[in-house]
Amino acid sequence: xxxxxxxxxxxxxxxxxxxxxxxxxxxxxxxxxxxxxxxxxxxxxxxxxxxxxxxxxxxxxxxxxxxxxxxxxxxxxxxxxxxxxxxxxxxxxxxxxxxxxxxxxxxxxxxxxxxxxxxxxxxxxxxxxxxxxxxxxxxxxxxxxxxxxxxxxxxxxxxxxxxxxxxxxxxxxxxxxxxxxxxxxxxxxxxxxxxxxxxxxxxxxxxxxxxxxxxxxxxxxxxxxxxxxxxxxxxxxxxxxxxxxxxxxxxxxxxxxxxxxxxxxxxxxxxxxxxxxxxxxxxxxxxxxxxxxxxxxxxxxxxxxxxxxxxxxxxxxxxxxxxxxxxxxxxxxxxxxxxxxxxxxxxxxxxxxxxxxxxxxxxxxxxxxxxxxxxxxxxxxxxxxxxxxxxxxxxxxxxxxxxxxxxxxxxxxxxxxxxxxxxxxxxxxxxxxxxxxxxxxxxxxxxxxxxxxxxxxxxxxxxxxxxxxxx
Length: 471
What we know:
This protein has 17 helices and no strands. The chain is mainly α and 471 residues long. The chain has a single domain, classed as Growth Hormone, Chain: A.
């Protein structure tokens, strides 16, 4: 029997103020995202130097880039499901440990085959970390701020690449390419103990498990234990669901469209990250300028995510994200014509990052809001996993095209076309949402305006199926 005048757990999180502990959770998840971004893109920073040292052709590095992304795909799928089964915190800790140790072993590589193997293992940990830190942030964020906070936290990913690019430009000339991987392995090992000591398990996940003692302990840290009515069993309204439930209760069409958008946007993201430095070096720019171009790409992504998030709150997320992908397509194509000029390369890379990669980051936040607690890590993991197939295809595609003698203008125009495809997927998703919103009999009604208001208004009323987008 519920205590009169007290709140259930969902209301405490969704309607309460953001506490110091929650801010610390968001910051530490952002810090994990930062080292994830650094280690994910480390191979792009050092690839030109390894090619020179080993006498390898640029096309030989397509499989090396692809191996890390294949590991990321498998890691996102496996660790995403594990996060829904075993908890976000423990799953994330294991993933961080995997990519830290694999990064520290990478300097031992002496061939492209061995390098590809180590990047594959590193990718498993990197991809596996994403669903858990996105889920943790989402589940400690009030619904009225969830999209904004998830997007802001995920800015740590490209920010890590920006800082990593700057650090690599200093480390490589002074200590060689191996120092980048040493730094990438040691940083998360320093962060991991702090994360384990400070960050609690997701309180919403614990509610699914009906772990009242653990919930009470966390609420005590949130200074909200006195507000709790004691209700913790969410299993009746938030069932722990298998992957098949990503396609039930109105989720099927949106899930497929999210997958398409992730596939295309990650294809172009990793294409740009891995091949901008190589093309820049081919055009005669030194390693510092080549790495700085990737840093500008990621810095643009951070700025773009913040700008697009604010615009999405006003004009609707699918409209904003779709239009951003279209603008980004023009900037990506322009990179192919600017590679000979450092200033033009920096400018076009920044704009491409702001719109295309910034839009991709907003799509991550959209995905986190779409899936409820029992499906969140699995839904994010599968979306990111499907996206990783595009991330694998992007670098490999670049290697094949370069090997065939394609010029940089044509190469980057092809990449820009994928941004157009992502725009179409998101815009179709928005149209589907609006059409279903106008059909009161549809059980799959998913509101475009609900998505845009979720960051500014209070929590939505939950239905018996707990579809986060139905009333």
